[in-house]
Amino acid sequence: MAGHVDEMRKRYEEFSQGDLESALQNWADDVVWQGSNSTELPGGGEHRGKEEAIKVLQETVGAWDEFNLTPDEFFEDGDTVVVLAHNDVKKGDQSAQVPVVHIWRWEGDEIKRLQILTDTLQAAQLLGMA
Known about the structure:
Layout: H1 4-16, H2 20-23, E1 27-34, E2 46-48, H3 50-62, E3 66-77, E4 80-91, E5 94-107, E6 110-118, H4 120-126
Parallel strand pairs: 1-6
Antiparallel strand pairs: 1-2, 3-4, 4-5, 5-6
């Protein structure tokens, strides 16, 4: 069986190609999306269930004129995979590279939790919210 890091590399590649169905295939029906503490920002707050998480993901990507997620490094410890990444985003005439950390919690072959850490001030400024 492939390790969780190998699975995550595939999922990020599928996401970058726009294949959302394949990218989310390991998400459990009761997955928990734990975004930033700022619920005003796209993707912020805690959301439960796969359908709700998909909705939040789509809203987050849709908040930007351009959005590209690039994973830089993968680390695995037991059932946890940490991905250091960056989002290349554009809103209007402003663009930036925003650092992001994804912490994935697996149970067996399913992802049960995604915790997202990012520079919320930078995102809020780019979105005209700060």
